[in-house]
Design goal:
40% strand; 235 residues; Jelly Rolls; 3 helices; mainly beta; single chain; four-stranded antiparallel β-sheet
Length: 235
């Protein structure tokens, strides 16, 4: 992937609330601003292609509780293409773990050893020159030591994705579930963008937030504060 030296804009993180969506643990501070999107998939049915996760079945993804659809004028359609390894099939549950009453990870799971493609269409008619991508993935390794990997971007970000948060549900279990939040920045706002992730992993949930923004002096000034608050991957 092409590397870049441009400044990565990260807003200062506020307190991270536990919300009713079980695995939405690290929402970006800018969620809900004009020209932002917020969508999630819990994989409670075995849908695998753009044609299944688009249209009337899931036109724009579901919105986390408390985020009004009417307040988001430029909500795009984010679509998924799930390509598991041959022989891998969707599972209604996989070693589920309940960490709070009614909040369970490991329900509706894709065992990959393959990949997921995420295609984000941009419907903001105003030209912008920065696009921020914030992705939360709840997953676990299916092979000890395996890591989730991003290995396709179109267009390329200015730098590799940065881990901005991680929560381990069972810290001593090498195969335990975790929610990891990633951030990256595109150098412009394209008509659409694609990213791919995969590995020998099981995936329970995906949350995607995006923001088309024009950098202002105040925004750039607080970028350093945000970078200091990045939460590195737990060892």
């Amino acid at each position: 992937m092409r590397k870049g030296s441009a400044l990565i804009v990260v807003l200062c993180l506020c307190a991270l609330p536990w919300v009713s969506l079980a695995e939405d643990l690290f929402p970006p501070e800018w969620r809900g601003e004009i020209s932002t999107t917020s969508q999630y998939w819990e994989f409670m049915t075995p849908l695998t292609g753009f044609e299944d996760l688009d249209g009337d079945k899931n036109p724009d993804g579901l919105l986390p509780d408390g985020y009004p659809r009417g307040g988001q004028p430029f909500l795009p359609s984010t679509r998924l293409w799930i390509s598991p390894e041959a022989g891998m099939e969707w599972m209604p549950e996989d070693d589920p773990f309940e960490y709070e009453p009614g909040q369970v990870v490991g329900l509706g799971v894709w065992p990959l050893s393959g990949y997921m493609d995420v295609l984000i269409d941009n419907h903001d008619p105003n030209p912008q020159n920065i696009k921020l991508i914030w992705v939360q993935i709840t997953w676990r390794p299916s092979v000890e030591g395996e890591e989730l990997e991003f290995y396709l971007f179109d267009p390329d970000p200015v730098a590799d994705p940065v881990v901005v948060g991680e929560y381990l549900y069972t810290p001593t279990d090498p195969f335990g579930w975790r929610t990891t939040a990633y951030f990256w920045q595109l150098p412009f706002n394209p008509p659409d963008e694609l990213f791919r992730f995969g590995g020998d992993i099981h995936v329970d949930e995906l949350v995607v937030d995006t923001w088309c923004v024009v950098p202002e002096p105040g925004l750039l000034a607080i970028a350093g504060c945000g970078l200091l608050l990045l939460r590195r991957r737990a060892k």
